Structure formats: structure tokens, C-alpha cells
Amino acid sequence: MNKSQLIEALAKAENLTIKKAEMVVNTIFDNMTDALIEDERIEIRGFGSFKVKCYNGYQGRNPKTGAVIEVCEKKLPFFKVGKELKERVDKGGQD
User: Fold this and answer.
1) Each residue of 14-64: pLDDT tens digit?
2) 3-state class of 92 per DSSP?
3) Would you say residue 82 has pLDDT above 70?
4) DSSP label at 33?
5) What one-character-per-residue DSSP string does 36-57 give?
6) Which residues are registered as beta bridge partners of 52?
7) pLDDT of residue 93
8) Torsions phi, psi of 76, nearest 5?
9) How far apart are CA 81 and CA 90, in angstroms?
């Protein structure tokens, strides 16, 4: 599912116009993005949690040339799946 499919599903499920559903989805994603930028943790019970992980810089190698390169430290968003979602996905269609 991509963003436009999510918007369509929300519009259909809640009898909203596509524009209103798009506004809702964009507002949620914008707020989640802002929270992660501020190093806040996001927890959605039954689904999972998002947080920002910090990775130290290190010396790496260019796989093509073998030259040593410096890889800068970085922050990346990280998702940890919740127990309920993990169990539902694992069961899949096994009922």
C-alpha cells in the first residue's frame, strides 16, 4: 500500500472526500516527522514504535576502488514492530 492508496482507503472507510482524507494523512505524517526531528519517540499501541537512532562515524571502503573513506555519523529513523502486529502478520492466512 502506498500513500495514495491509504488516502483512498480512508476516504472510502470514513465517507470523506479525497481532499479531506489527504489532509488527514498528510497531517499525521507531518506530525510524526516533526516528532522524529525533535528526537521524540512515537508509539502506536498494537502497531509499533518509531525512534531516531544515532550511528557513529567510521572508516569504510569504497567497494569499487578499495579506497578508505570516512563515513560521517548520522541519525536514522528506526521502526520496531509491536507484539500484536508481529503476531497478526506471522499468522497471515493460516486460520
Assistant:
1) 999 999 999 999 999 999 999 999 999 999 999 999 999 999 999 999 999
2) coil
3) yes
4) H
5) HHTT--EEETTTEEEEEEEE--
6) 77
7) 64
8) -135, 145
9) 12
Asked if 38 and 50 touch (Cβ cutoff 8 Å), the reply is: no
**Residue located via cell numbers 525512534:** 51
pLDDT at 92: 84
Question: Phi and psi for 11 in degrees, rounded to 5?
Answer: -60, -45
Grid cell in block for residue 20: 479531506
3-state secondary structure of 75: strand
Rounded CA separation 79/91 (Å) = 20
Q: Indicate whether this model's pTM tops 0.85.
A: no
Phi, psi of 66 (to 5 degrees): 80, 0
Cell triple for 64: 569499487
Determine the 3-state secondary structure of 69 from DSSP: strand
